[in-house]
Design brief:
Length: 303
């Protein structure tokens, strides 16, 4: 899975930070400060909570608090510039505000800043610097940063390749419910990469991720059921998981689901449905699907 900003890997429902203001403010006895209130009001306009959504107004309020060094407002303003929400997209300004927030120890901003360095958005691309900020955020418990750091270790991006470290960071993110980390952790268990091979653990993490909607995990879980790896072999469940993934556009799942319909594995044999799914996969460039489709059409013409 590629590195991404919060919200682009199923990490959060919303891309803007919206959490406990008390944790990151200069509040006294749990009371919100004036800046906290301004930032919070900006969030209500951003999300449309109790008011009509107004991104431009949200940016105004974030700016007012950010210019007075409020870390959450700085992070939120940075994201608005990054995504071009309520203001013209400007990666350089995004980096400026993420940096101000990150240097105050705000984990979400640290993760965003790592992404900017990783992708070269608003700053010269620097994978080592990206890893620095991912690690800084990950050590504070930010699950997106933990996932991104695991990805870096698994692929040798900005750090020396280290599968054991990848597994340790994926695990921390997976325990917090990060769907991509759960899927990648399942891959590590399946392949015995960075940890002892264990098909049962692989299936466990695939199911966790699949239930959160990961199309890759749904496909992988389908494979577990087809092969009986880590779970009792069950063609019906395999077809069900392939279908969930296929409906999300995952080409390999479309191909396998087509095969199930062609052979009648876990489903009633249906050449028309097999043709449909082989075509879907072939349209995405799956050459095996294209070849199988030709053979299937020939069989259908002969019947």
């Amino acid at each position: 899975m590629p590195l991404s900003l919060i919200g682009q890997t199923g990490y959060e429902r919303n891309t803007l930070y919206y959490g406990s203001m008390e944790e990151h403010s200069n509040s006294v006895d749990g009371q919100l400060t004036e800046l906290d209130s301004i930032c919070k009001k900006g969030e209500t306009y951003y999300f449309g909570y109790g008011v009509q959504e107004n991104l431009a107004r949200a940016v105004e309020l974030f700016t007012a608090a950010a210019e007075k060094s409020h870390p959450i407002a700085q992070c939120n303003l940075g994201y608005c510039y990054y995504a071009g929400q309520g203001v013209k997209q400007n990666y350089v300004h995004a980096v400026e505000w993420f940096t101000k927030s990150a240097e105050q120890g705000f984990a979400e901003a640290q993760c965003y800043l790592g992404v900017c360095y990783d992708k070269g958005h608003g700053v010269e691309k620097n994978h080592e610097q990206a890893v620095y900020w991912y690690r800084t955020a990950a050590e504070q418990g930010n699950r997106q940063a933990q996932y991104n750091l695991g990805y870096c270790y698994e692929n040798g991006v900005g750090v020396q390749l280290n599968y054991e470290q990848a597994v340790s960071w994926y695990l921390l993110a997976a325990i917090q419910g990060h769907e991509a980390a759960q899927c990648n952790l399942g891959n590590c268990y399946r392949n015995g990469r960075g940890i002892k091979q264990d098909y049962s653990e692989a299936a466990y993490w695939y199911e966790k991720s699949a239930e959160l909607g990961s199309k890759e995990a749904q496909y992988n879980l389908g494979n577990c059921y087809i092969k009986g790896e880590g779970v009792k072999q069950d063609y019906t469940k395999a077809a069900e998981w392939y279908e969930k993934s296929a409906n999300q556009g995952y080409a390999n799942a479309q191909y396998n689901l087509a095969s199930c319909y062609e052979r009648g594995d876990g489903v009633v044999r249906d050449y028309a449905k097999a043709q449909h799914w082989f075509q879907k996969a072939a349209d995405q460039g799956n050459r095996y699907a294209a070849n199988r489709l030709k053979k299937l059409l020939k069989v259908m013409q002969e019947e």
